[in-house]
Amino acid sequence: MLTMNKQLAIRVAVLALMTALVLIGCGDRGNNQAPVKETGPVDEESVLTIEGSGVANNTRLTLQEIQGMQSAIIQDEYFSLNNWGTKQYFSFKGVSLWQLLSEAGVKDTARQVVITADDGYCISYDIADVKREDYIDETNLDKKYKMIIAWEEDGKAYDPTKYPFRLVVGQREPGDINKQNWVAKVKTIKVD
Question: Domain of life of the organism in this record (predicted)?
């Protein structure tokens, strides 16, 4: 049997390795794209940037511009399961992430989408994951969800001066721990 100190050392090593892998996966791979399109003077922290070699146009969208995408707005209850087994519902209002990428001119050659928060936390998805329209709620398998960028949670808008965008996604299958994939204060979406 392993002693408590050895168990702790193993856990710390595994955590460090996982952190390193996330940081490597989210690193800047270079971008020779044209400069980002400016939409006018706005608070930098209320702008969502979509960039990378997988989009035709680097794009900066304000909260107001995203809220104005009436045909893409989604308002629904999303089921969440966290690492401790806590199950909960949250009501979100936002837009389809795939629709946002389409607005930026996502290319057929795009393969990966990296969503990065204000604090540097990031998560990476294959383009097929972003396109999916069949994420689930394990308590109601008839329910189907899209991956969204939300600006409102449980009827309350996020602070519009502090990156008011959150990535929200349903479960891939029953038992899928999906809440860890919800990224708050999304700043940049990079498509390659």
Answer: Bacteria
